[in-house]
Design goal:
mainly alpha
Length: 149
């Protein structure tokens, strides 16, 4: 892969995005067979749902790089705009996902705080010796004193 200038694939392996076996298959395949390699790797568990989008982006970037090097074209303003748009879309998606997870977490914390104010639940927890709440790292709306209404 080093001899063929496959820096993106090497970088993907170094970051743990996908295994070396997958990178070797991609390096040995031309653009037309990449989709099949990606699907086979997914079926074999080399690429999972967790790293599929990253692997696909790396392969797409590799394909764009190969096309440029084969055609000896310069990097154009349109390509830069497309790369910026792609990066912005990926970052926006990540931020949206983080916000959704944060909202779910805060909803759960709110529900826990309501439950800890229920006298019947407090009586059950006290009977079972489970009155100590775990400490959370960070700054959350988490009332550590159980049973107070």
């Amino acid at each position: 892969m080093v001899d063929r200038g496959e820096e993106r694939l090497i970088h993907g392996v170094e970051q743990g995005i996908f295994p070396m076996k997958f990178a070797m298959r991609v390096a040995a395949t031309d653009d037309t067979g990449i989709q099949g390699i990606l699907m086979d790797a997914f079926d074999e568990g080399l690429v999972t749902t967790a790293n599929f989008s990253q692997a696909r982006r790396l392969i797409a970037a590799r394909a764009r790089g190969l096309k440029r090097s084969n055609n000896q074209q310069q990097y154009t303003v349109q390509q830069l705009q497309q790369d910026i748009a792609d990066a912005t879309k990926a970052k926006t998606s990540y931020v949206r996902e983080a916000q959704v997870k944060e909202n779910r977490f805060l909803t759960l914390l709110g529900g826990i705080n309501v439950l800890w104010k229920d006298p019947q639940l407090m009586a059950i927890l006290s009977d079972q010796g489970l009155m100590n709440r775990p400490a959370l790292a960070g700054d959350f709306a988490y009332d550590p004193s159980p049973g107070e209404a």
